[in-house]
Amino acid sequence: MLTTTSIPFLDVRGITDLVREDLDLCWERVLADGRFIGGPEVETFEARFAEYCGTEHCVGVANGTDALELILAALDIGPGDEVIVPANTFVATVEAVCAVGARPRFVDVRADTLEVDPDAVAAAIGPRTAAVMAVHLFGQMVDLDRLVPLVRRHGIALVEDAAQAHGARFGGRRAGSVGVAAAFSFYPGKNLGALGDGGAVVSDDAALVTRIRQLANHGRANQGHHLHELRGRNSRLDTLQAALLTAKLRRLDEDNARRRSLMQRYRERLPVGCVSVAQHPRAESVHHLAVVQVPDRAAATAALDAAGIGWGLHYPVPCHRQPAFAEFAEDRLPVTENAAERILSLPMSPTLTVAQVDRVSDVLSRAAGP
Ligand SMILES: *Cc1c(COP(=O)(O)O)cnc(C)c1O
Questions:
Q1: Residues 58 and 94 grouped into a single domain
Q2: Do residues 232 and 305 both lie within one domain?
Q3: What pLDDT does 219 receive?
Q4: Which residues line ligand 1 (CB under 6 A)?
Q5: How many Å apart are CA 117 and CA 366, to the nearest integer?
Q6: Do 44 and 59 sit in the same domain of this protein?
């Protein structure tokens, strides 16, 4: 039941309202121009987003899953190759690996951050390993101090899945600026969301980016519309979405700062048994999701439901336990499996108020008992 006291898990409507006037202007501008694929609006967004991420290049694509797949394809990763993926991620990370014909090699995560465990990565590296998917989960970048030297030593590619980490930093470096290339998603619920699907690849590697741009545009050679050098596909960022994203990008840092202070408030107010995901001291998370671990999830979610508070689960069925990936199943990844039973995502949006965070915390405190 929706009442005035209900709290949405994610307030996409409210987030859109924050920039409503800017979005109306974009819409008018694009309609008046009459160009809906490519053009200066896309070029502007690509330039601004590359600058934001601290990379040389950006290419807009249709969604984050395509961004991941196009990176792997442009790196010539395919059949016979293995790509190391944390089992605790959204399935899209794995779909991209499978789509190019490579084999996902699932590894466990750390119990505190729930992000890929560098020791598990080290143990999984073998002769067929072509890349490691660095998934910056929940808004926090992975432990670069440990992962970067590891992949360098073995000469394998670090591909960033930054779909949940627009603007995150680790030791001053922005998400997207660390790997050979990074994939972003602009799904409406992400920290930077379009009004529909969208995605981007950022990288410093000009040749790689050119190849991705070609692959995403029917393999067209840069010299000619009718010359198809590669077997490509259609995966472009729409002109309208690019215009809207340029407008929304201006607010991103402010929104991320707001998320950070809300998360801080959660930490101060949540009951002791409700443990939020640990932060690496060098990581500056953008808190895409407010994930906690609770001992009795059924009791917690029942209390939230009764109070009209939205919640989510990221992710209750680990990727190595998904029927779609049964072929690649690992025996046991105990940390991921244990966390899957205990994780709970609490409301998080830049429009959330401190009073709402306090109410969520109070409801969880009462559910946890005296
Ligand atoms: C959202 C997401 C993706 C996929 O992005 P889409 O734009 O929905 O295709 C990939 N990886 C992670 C970790 C995500 O959260």
A1: yes
A2: no
A3: 95
A4: 63-65, 89-90, 92-93, 135, 161, 163-164, 185, 187, 197, 199
A5: 34
A6: yes
Task: Quickly count: other Cβ atoms within 10 Å of residue 140's Cβ.
Answer: 28
pLDDT tens readout for residues 337-358: 999 999 999 999 999 999 999 9
pLDDT at 1 over 50: no
Q: What's the predicted TM-score (pTM) here?
A: 0.97
Instruction: Please give the DSSP secondary-structure letter assigned to residue 347.
Output: P
Task: Name beta bridge partners: 129.
Answer: 82
Domain count, the chain: 2
What separation in Å is there between the alpha carbon of 72 and the centre of ligand 1?
15
Q: Are residues 191 and 66 located together in one domain of the fold? A: yes
Q: Indicate if 85 and 220 belong to the same structural domain.
A: yes
pLDDT digits (tens, 9 = 90+) for 319-334: 999 999 999 987 799 9
Q: Which domain holds residue 210?
A: 13-249
Q: What is the CA(137)–ligand 1 centre distance, in A?
A: 10
**Residues 236 and 328 occupy one common structural domain:** no
pLDDT per residue over 123-175, tens digit each? 999 999 999 999 999 999 999 999 999 999 999 999 999 999 999 999 989 99
Query: How many residues comprise the chain?
Result: 370
Q: Which residues of 142-179 are buried (b: 16+ CB within 10 A; e: fewer)?
A: bbbeebbebbeeeebbbbbbbbbbbbbbbeebbbbbbb
Both 36 and 79 in one domain: the answer is yes
